[in-house]
Amino acid sequence: MALGNDYREQNCFLARALEVVGERWTLMILRDCCYGVRHFSDLLAHLDISRAVLAERLDTLVDNGLLTRSRTGRQVEYQLTVAGKALWPTIFGLMSWGQKYLPADHPPRRFRHVTCAADLDDSGRCPDCGRVPEVADVETRPAVRRRAIDRDDPVAKALREPHRMLTPVP
Amino acid sequence: MALGNDYREQNCFLARALEVVGERWTLMILRDCCYGVRHFSDLLAHLDISRAVLAERLDTLVDNGLLTRSRTGRQVEYQLTVAGKALWPTIFGLMSWGQKYLPADHPPRRFRHVTCAADLDDSGRCPDCGRVPEVADVETRPAVRRRAIDRDDPVAKALREPHRMLTPVP
DNA sequence: CCAAGCAGTCTGGTCACAAGACCGATACTG
DNA sequence: CAGTATCGGTCTTGTGACCAGACTGCTTGG
């Protein structure tokens, strides 16, 4: 969060965490990685972020051990590490908080524990087995009523069908 | 998050949530409110934030229904609404994520469910009753080993003793 | 009335971000 | 092999956010 004062602070790990994931776009990037997005160009198209900022964010995520970077042919692949995957409950928590307490004009995307086939509750827990499932065991489905105006990048298109988290998209 | 593009996006409540709480300092302010901090000057001293930014953040938090503002005598009091309190699990989640996955040089502050007298686990759940307690039912205690250099504002001093969340501090 | 404390607002300089041009490395194509 | 497309960046320029600190205006106590 390198903006002058970087939350240097009293015994607080919230400040530490925000130095890594508190910058603009970072959580959105991680959300997409949870969906299974792995390529620079896909993130670019899906997020409407500037190239420079995306490159910088990916750098700090790799540096801090939330993503790995690897070359496969002409593409570069970004993948979540264990630390990165561990942020999923937080991301999900923010999402369902927003859905519950903020006015919005679009219906919510749904998330389901695949092994129990039950939709997650507000805190990301599966009502059937009572546990908070790993990202890998979650499937996401588009909202029930589709929004009128929809994005048109490859990632958005792929996510119009049910999709297992972390599996490659598009 | 009013920086040009404000995450205007496909069916995603994460973007919506980040527009409200994704800006620099916002989550730190809410954390302090969870601790029970209620006055402008206390936040100012505890966070080392600029006055202008603090005023702006408090404005948007009040506007979005996370805090209420009221005058009591010469002071102004900020208090968490239901929506604001509902963010506690997310804040706690980020904190324990940071504690688990980020290197740091200081020991963690502890949080305990008062009715069960048990320390919360990573996901903010009480291992005894198995539920995620409300903020109001949580007590925070300073880290076991005190850090060498410590802050010296009223809030920091108050939090050197065990403290029930949401009860006034300092 | 005066002084003090609190909660802001104002100002000037610095830094981050947006948008888009440009660059280099790696394939594919003829 | 040269030419070209694609991908993943870097560079540049303008705009807006943030920081530090001075200043203001309201409320209360003496």
Automatic annotation (TrEMBL), chains A, B:
* Keywords in alphabetical order: DNA-binding, Transcription, Transcription regulation
- Which GO terms of the molecular function aspect are on file? DNA binding; DNA-binding transcription factor activity
Name the InterPro entries on file: ArsR-like_HTH (IPR011991), HTH_ArsR_DNA-bd_dom (IPR001845), HTH_HxlR (IPR002577), WH-like_DNA-bd_sf (IPR036388), WH_DNA-bd_sf (IPR036390)
Q: Does the keyword Nucleotidyltransferase apply?
A: no
Report the CDD domains cross-referenced here.
HTH_ARSR (cd00090)
Give the highest taxon in the source lineage: Bacteria
Indicate the segments forming the HTH hxlR-type domain, all copies.
12-106
Q: Show the SMART domains listed in the entry.
A: HTH_ARSR (SM00418)
Q: Does the keyword Ligase apply?
A: no
Q: Name one Pfam family in it.
A: HxlR
Q: What is this protein called?
A: Helix-turn-helix transcriptional regulator
